[in-house]
Amino acid sequence: MIRFNLLPRHERRSRREQQRYQRWLAVLLISASVIILCNWLILEQQHERQRERLQLLRQAHQQQDQHIALRQQIQQDIVQLSKQRAALDSVQQQRTATVSLLTLLAMNTPPGIVLEQLSEEKQRLSLQGLADSHQDIADLLHALRQQYPSSLVDLQHTTKSGQRQAFLINVVTQNKEHDS
Questions:
Q1: pTM, whole model, 2 decimals?
Q2: DSSP string, 40-77
Q3: Distance between CA atoms of 6 and 161, rounded to whole angstroms?
Q4: Which are the contacts of 148, defined by CB distance < 8 A and separation ≥ 6?
């Protein structure tokens, strides 16, 4: 019988299989590394996009907070301006009543009357002056009562001051304004 030494052949085959196994292992390790690196890069890009979106959202929230604060300030300003306008309207209404009374006095004061003092306290005007006669005072009262209801025009008192008559008339202007 012929004998062959198969050991070198087995050895070579075993080395080839081992080399092939090592090559496959190296290819697998390289492939796994590439896959892991790609996944890591993709995840990092997603995280970066998320950070950018979060930053944009924070900026948008800050802008919205500023808009809300501005709106609240504007609303407070509007309320304050409304109060100021109401006060000005009230003053204007009082002024209109006073101006209408002064216009009425200028047009209807009899020639024998001299007004010495005109004072205003809230919505009450006081006329103080001198008249040549009681008839002049009555004419002034009549003119005032034509303009204002009789309950709002009141002759407080008259006194003799030398040859003339001193008088005090109160006119309450809160209920009716004069239409010029």
A1: 0.46
A2: HHHHHHHHHHHHHHHHHHHHHHHHHHHHHHHHHHHHHH
A3: 160
A4: 171, 172, 173, 176, 178
Q: What is the mean pLDDT of the segment spanning 20-24?
A: 96
Instruction: Report yes or no: 126 and 170 within 8 Å, Cβ to Cβ.
Output: yes
Supply 31's token pair.
Answer: 């492939």
Assign 110 to helix, strand or coil.
coil
pLDDT of residue 50: 97
Identify the residue with better confidence: 74 or 146.
74
> Which two structure tokens, joined as six digits, stand for 23?
């090559």
Q: Do β-strands 153-161 and 113-121 pair in parallel, antiparallel, or remain unpaired?
A: unpaired
As given in the structure block, the two tokens for residue 51 are: 């950070």
CB neighbours (10 Å) of residue 129?
21
